[in-house]
Amino acid sequence: MRLPLLSPAFPGTVGSEWGKLWSVRSAGLCLLAALVVTGVFSYYYGAIARINGHPVQPVGNAAASSVVLVQFAFAVLAMVAVTSEYTTGSIRATLLWTPRRHRVQAAKALVAAGVAFSGGTVCAVLGTAVAWGAFDGRASFDAGTTARQVLAVGVYQALVAVLTVGVAFAARHPAGALAVLVSLLWAVPSTLLGLGAATVVDGLPYGAGGHFVSAGAGGAPYGPVTAVLIVAAWAAAAHLAGRYALHRADA
Amino acid sequence: MISLRGLTKRYGGTLAVDDLTFDVRAGLVTGFLGPNGAGKSTTLRMVLGLDHPTRGRALIGGRPYAELHRPLRAVGAMLDSRAVHPARSGRAHLVAQARAGGIPVRRVDEVLEAVGLGAAARRPAGTYSLGMSGRLGVAGALLGDPAVLVLDEPVNGLDPEGVRWIRRLVREEAARGRTVFLSSHLMSEMELTADRLVVIGRGRLLSDTSMADFLASASPPSARVAVPDPEERAALARGLAALGGVSVEAAADGSLAVGGRTAAEVGDLAHRCGARLHGLRDVRVSLEEAYMELTAHSVEYAAGTGGGHGEERA
């Protein structure tokens, strides 16, 4: 029997990871959770602004603010794609199929980022639509600003997914990975904000991501480009940490 | 061909694999034997690029596994057959493998049929029996139609029919010129399957020979001879003793167990003594006995020795 020669190159590994992601239920559940949390959060954001008579703000801020919570749906999706391989032992099969280990991590990061970007933008559109009704006139709509915010949410979620894949390869175990992610993306920055250390938080994905996705608030210490670069730098650092751990360790 | 050169793996203070050097040749089934904890799985993981050797190299066709251009087309491996995501169907698992390895997806259904998993292909792998998991593992190894097969304990959990199937499969693959490297702790299975044997104990190479040489070297030739007449029996025993280097023992049924001579040699002597024989046969040492003799001093977890110091990773 002769098999035709196809190159087992990077697109093959990406296709393999894509198929693995959707052949178990967790990814779909994470997306569903992201949609539900976005919808509920955005509704309350708009309703509270209306009830309390907040000044008029860009409608996209509702969905943008939900990111601090919704990011964990995409983080769990990306994390499970890595840690489930270690808990089930299937990482050995994966590395037999693609022994150039960084290619595995890059493929997982790309797939998770693609799903998080698409899912993030869909969530942002949904959240914006829900919030528009809930604001009931306390929000402004500008197509350009809203589009920028929707895309910013998608980009932020994609960067969180890349960061998560890196952390998960470094930690291997879901408990450890989740502890790092919750600390970095929420617990530490919100504690620091409570202590008044806002300048430190501006250097973390939490602060930079917030400045990146929100609009019209003013008071940001830097522009959206700097903000997204800060988040990207964190994602790159986590990616390199995961790459180092994956390269070094026995599978 | 698989070549190991000084392959060594150290975990902390324990040498799990200690300076292994041997070749696994094409066209033969090579059995990889050793007691539990001897380092078989660690060795195979290093051959397949999953574990990093502390020293030494393992090459497949002259290159490390991780540097093979199309690893799944070159090497089919089955390690822990349970290491599949339990919620993923067997077919989805193999489709992911095919995509990663640049293998046409239609090949997945061919191998699923070939291993007899066609009906269960779309069920979650977590619902498979041990035997079905083993068949899925073999399907994965065959997927790329590779020139080298590396199978870790492939008959584990298989029913007798499955065991015969694996035996026939690896013999056929070897007959087609493929390299087959097969680990097992089941001696009886190896005796029927393997052409060559590599035996390790406590990570060290104990033997690397053909099956026939292994059995022959393990203990001297011996024979069993039944002589009905007591006087003739005594005469034959004296004659044998006079040859030197021969042990003669009377067995419970009145026959003689002769160590150090073949049945042919005993028959010739009986003929010269004029002893009338009712039975004469060579006593072949079984692989199991030969193996026990060889590894007696290197059993990691022998009963009553207070346990070993190595660790077989799950």
Q: What integer value in Å does the Rg of chain B equal?
A: 24 Å
Low-confidence segments of chain B: 304-314
**Number of beta strands of chain A:** 2
- What's the Cα radius of gyration of chain A? 19 Å
- Most extensive chain-chain interface: A-B, 36 and 40 residues
Q: What's the shape of chain A? A: globular
Oligomer: heterodimer
Order of helices and strands of chain B: EEEHEHEHHHEHEHEEHEHEEHEH
Residue ranges of chain A: pLDDT <50 for 5 or more in a row?
none
Number of strands of chain B: 13
Structural class of chain A: mainly alpha
Decide which structural class fits the backbone of chain B.
alpha/beta
Query: How far apart are the first and last residues' alpha carbons of chain B, in Å?
Result: 27 Å
- Average per-residue pLDDT of chain B, rounded, comes to 88
Helix content of chain A: over 70%
Order of helical and strand elements of chain A: HHEHHHEHHHHH
Helix count, DSSP H or I runs of 4 or more residues of chain B: 11
Number of helical segments with 4 or more residues of chain A:
10
Strand order of the largest sheet of chain A: 1-2
Shape, principal axes of CA atoms of chain B: elongated
Q: What features would you highlight for this structure?
A:
A: 251 residues; mainly alpha; 10 helices; 2 strands; B: alpha/beta; 6-stranded mixed sheet; 4-stranded antiparallel sheet
Describe this structure in words.
Chain A: Keywords: Membrane, Transmembrane, Transmembrane helix. Chain A: It comes from Streptomyces termitum. The complex is a heterodimer of chains A (251) and B (314). Chain A is mostly helical and 251 residues long. Chain A has one domain. Chain A has helices spanning 10-22, 26-51, 60-88, 91-97, 101-135, 143-171, 174-194, 198-201, 205-213, 224-248; strands spanning 57-58, 139-140. In chain A, strands 1-2 form a two-stranded parallel sheet. In chain A, helix 2 runs parallel beside helix 5 (101-135), helix 5 (101-135) packs antiparallel against helix 10 (224-248) and helix 6 packs antiparallel against helix 9 (205-213). The longest helix of chain A has 35 residues, at 101-135. Chain A is globular, with a radius of gyration of 19 Å. The mean pLDDT of chain A is 94. Chain B has 314 residues and is α/β, with parallel strands linked by helices. Helix content of chain B is 35%, strand content 25%. Chain B has eleven helices and 13 strands. Chain B has helices at 40-47, 71-74, 90-101, 106-114, 130-142, 160-175, 187-193, 211-218, 230-243, 263-273, 287-295, and strands spanning 2-11, 14-24, 29-33, 55-60, 75-78, 148-152, 179-184, 196-201, 204-210, 222-226, 247-250, 256-259, 279-283. In chain B, strands 5-6-7-3-8-9 form a six-stranded mixed sheet, sandwiched between helices. In chain B, strands 11-12-10-13 form a four-stranded antiparallel sheet, covered by helices on one side. Chain B has a three-stranded antiparallel sheet with strand order 2-1-4, covered by helices on one side. In chain B, helix 9 (230-243) packs across helix 10 (263-273). Chain B is elongated. Chain A binds chain B through residues 1, 3-9, 12-13, 15-17, 19-20, 23-25, 84-85, 88-90, 92-101, 248, 250-251, and chain B through 45, 48-52, 65-68, 70-73, 77, 79-80, 82-89, 92-93, 95-97, 99-104, 107, 140, 144-145.
